[in-house]
Amino acid sequence: MSDVAAIEVRGLKVHFANRSGTGAVRAVDGIDLTVARGAFHGIVGESGCGKTTLARTIVGLQKESEGTVLIGGRDRAEWLKSDRKSFSREVQFVFQDPLGSMSRRQSVYQTLEEPLQIHRFGSSVERRRRIAELLDLVALPETVLDRLPRSLSGGQRQRVSIARALALKPSILVCDEPLSALDVSIRAQIVNLFTSLQKQLGLTIVIVAHDLAIVREVCSDVTVMYLGRISEAGVTRPLFREPAHPYSQALLSAVPSPDPRIEAGRRRIILAGDPPSPSAPPPGCRFNTRCPVAIDVCRVEEPLLRMVPHGGVAACHLADSARRPVI
């Protein structure tokens, strides 16, 4: 079982009906993805690319239109049908807005105790002991236990949200933009917390993120999405150093460098126009309408993911070693 991936996504599609009743929004439109056990996997891309829908579908918060999600080799849909509680003990979700994901009438203690009660975890004394362990894991003082979520800072709320997700000792955390609602100074603290927890508990973490600088520092692997599809994926450091897809190159050109000499000479790639509608993606490569190096085949034939020099894959007709695009 040790060789079985933590998460496998095969042929996943999530389509939503248009309000007009004609056609569909193809939020996720045919994705294959593997996340190894113990990986810290980042999913990145512009707003509307489908990354949050993908994350929510992995944990069963959103129903797929087609395809399969396997958790530890086990079909997620069947697992949820047969034993939702055991699935919840294995996989947990951390929401973007911690305040919105918690009851505003429950104290922090009640918030942390609730999943333990639902799963009939020990006596009240054992639950209190577990809650003390959770506070220690996320570096919160016991003084927060009697407080309501609205009286906490943004960073404290997110720590409580993470502690609640860890209450049942899951092996997988899927996190939807857990840093976006936080001040820059607090983001670093939460990033360090995730890194510490991943190493200490051996967690598999999937994180949806906009901040590519953070992804570069903490994620072992990264998937770049565009308009419901994967445009590029691979080990983070090689991919960031040598992106093969023009879209990845454009995204990474916006990541500032801590070295002022490199920053002074950095060229920012500005993409023209907005992403097409996910209900009517263009023929051929979905990026061709904004790609400055697109050729005729890009406009008629959708590229398959292929191996590229950094060791990962990219969906680009020009991404092989002989014709790698540089924009």
UniProtKB/TrEMBL annotation:
Compartments reported by the entry: Cell inner membrane
Membrane topology: Peripheral membrane protein
Family annotation (InterPro entries): AAA+_ATPase, ABC_transp_ATP-bind, ABC_transporter-like_ATP-bd, ABC_transporter-like_CS, Oligopep_ABC_C, P-loop_NTPase
Keywords: ATP-binding, Nucleotide-binding, Transport
NCBIfam families associated with the record: oligo_HPY
Family that this chain belongs to: Belongs to the ABC transporter superfamily.
Protein name per its UniProtKB record: ABC transporter ATP-binding protein
Native source organism of the sequence: Mesorhizobium caraganae
